Please model this.
Amino acid sequence: EILHDMTATLDATAFVCKNFPHRLWAWNKCFRRDLIGNLRFHDYQPSEDAVFVLDCLTRAKKVLELPNVCYKYLQHKGSCLKTVNFKRLTGDINGMRELAEVLCQWRSFPQIRKSVYSQLRDVFLRGIATNIERCNEPPDVVCKLKNMYFAAARRVFVELPVSHSVQKVMWRILFAAHSVGLIDKFFRVRGCVARMLMKIRLT
Model:
């Protein structure tokens, strides 16, 4: 079992659907040793614990959530979660791609595909894209981040079975615009793009 600080007992599929992707922290959970096996944190930050927790959840049958608070998590202004820089954004991009990879290999993925698509779409179009635009890195570093962003988004929304066919077409249009040099245009109008993609329901 994985222990969490609320009162409930859920199967692992329901827990992922409820908490993906922003509550897959490791700091407030306990794991059976045999559930972890050879799993380890990845070498990027943040999101390294989210991939680890999701890997564990795909091996688990149930999740026990406890009512008592065992830890208090404090953030300060200089923490990696409060700092938008190359390291943080690289971790976000790699983490979301890895989470999608793990989910698509899970036997329970078809049950949560609709929810997973919506969450990943929002993270890419609203979270990561917004942070890339407001980071204070030099222009060449920002360009590198944007290229990493598009490579990860292509993997998640076109190559993996996260999107349905119509959504894949819309993402391919975005990637085509990127390939002919309209990369900055996308980041300026990403709000319109997000609204357009959100109108396409996953069937």
